[in-house]
Design goal:
The protein is an alpha/beta fold. It folds into 3 domains: 3-86, Winged helix-like DNA-binding domain superfamily/Winged helix DNA-binding domain (Arc Repressor Mutant, subunit A), CATH 1.10.10.10; 92-158 and 267-295, Periplasmic binding protein-like II (D-Maltodextrin-Binding Protein, domain 2, 3-Layer(aba) Sandwich), CATH 3.40.190.10; 161-265, D-Maltodextrin-Binding Protein, domain 2, CATH 3.40.190. The protein is 41% helix and 25% strand. It contains 9 helices and 13 strands. The strands form 3 sheets. Strands 3, 4, 5, 6, 7, 10, 11, 12 and 13 form a 9-stranded mixed beta sheet that branches. A two-stranded antiparallel sheet has the order 1-2. It has a two-stranded antiparallel ribbon with strand order 8-9. Strand 1 and strand 2 (56-58) form a beta hairpin. The radius of gyration is 30 Å and the shape is elongated. The two termini are 57 Å apart.
Length: 302
């Protein structure tokens, strides 16, 4: 016998106070209700209901089972509703947060393609390099680059990128080209202020050792594009994700240095609030991003 049907019959008898009222509510016969409840008690090996000629009430174990059963039935209904909703065309509004440079260089094209595919969806995208509180600030999803720290959120990996050290050729001609990590202490290091490590760079040596170098340049800024412009004009050495510097390297505005060091990879994730079910439009958007970046992965730097 179907366990959910047994649960539903039992819950209805408790809530309606009897078999006849429960049968009327569920639209099935009284005998069917009785068979469901009897089958449930037989399977569990306990008596869940006290029955008299005039009254039906739950036993102590029955009340405990009732509390759990109503939660299970609610989850089952929610699952049915979610699947039904997911069959509909995504529609409604999405609020998205993303870092400025990734938004400009990568995400904006993906969002445009998504909106072309789903004309009933609208997007409000905020580009900001500061850490946003997704729920408190009313966002549906945020893009995060690097190590994830908020375990209360769900995450889907979209792609990876690498960081590279770059400087203009004019800067290197004037100050020399660093060949080792130690050489960096004699150079102007342009620093990204939103790093979780403060004003130090964590660098892995060829033998796997972690080294720290203090950023001692004349410029600290919270935006990667601004650091790149500074490096292009010869102010110093910047360490930036590949998707920011790709075009500048290709055009010769900056050159990569210290390429003998191990590549540092960083994940780029879509982060969204945890919950039993994700709204269909958000699910469609995240699934779209995963597939889009699988086909159009220009951010790796591999």
């Amino acid at each position: 016998m179907d366990r959910l049907s047994e649960m539903e019959a039992f819950v209805s008898v408790v809530e309606q106070g009897g078999f006849t009222n429960a049968a009327n509510k569920l639209g099935i016969s009284k005998s069917a209700i009785s068979n469901h409840v009897s089958g449930l008690e037989a399977r569990l090996g306990v008596r869940l209901l006290n029955r008299t000629t005039r009254h039906v009430s739950a036993t102590e174990l029955g009340l405990t089972y009732y509390d759990r059963a109503i939660a299970i039935l609610a989850d089952a209904r929610a699952a049915d509703e979610m699947i039904t909703a997911m069959q509909d065309t995504p529609k409604g509004a999405l609020r998205i947060s993303a870092p400025v440079d990734f938004g400009n260089n990568q995400l904006s094209r993906a969002v445009s393609a998504f909106l072309q595919k789903y004309p009933d969806v609208s997007v409000n995208m905020t580009l900001d390099d500061t850490y946003v509180e997704i729920i408190a600030e009313g966002f549906d999803v945020a893009i995060r680059i690097g190590q994830l720290v908020d375990s209360s959120m769900r995450a889907r990996k979209l792609l990876e990128t690498s960081t590279k050290f770059v400087a203009s050729q004019d800067y290197l001609d004037a100050n020399g080209t660093p060949e080792t990590i130690d050489d960096l202490t004699n150079h102007h290091l342009l620093h990204y202020s939103n790093l979780s490590t403060g004003n130090t760079w964590n660098i892995t040596t060829p033998n796997g050792e972690e080294r720290q170098v203090r950023a001692n340049g004349r410029l600290t800024v919270n935006n990667g594009g601004s650091l790149l412009r500074a490096a292009e004009t010869g102010l110093g050495i910047a360490r930036l994700p590949y998707f920011i510097i790709e075009d500048s390297i290709a055009k010769g505005r900056v050159v990569p240095i210290l390429e003998s060091l191990p590549e540092q990879r960083m994940g780029i994730h879509a982060i969204y609030p945890a919950g039993k079910f994700i709204q269909p439009t958000l699910r469609a958007f995240i699934d779209f991003l995963v597939e889009y970046f699988r086909k159009n992965n220009h951010a790796t730097g591999a």
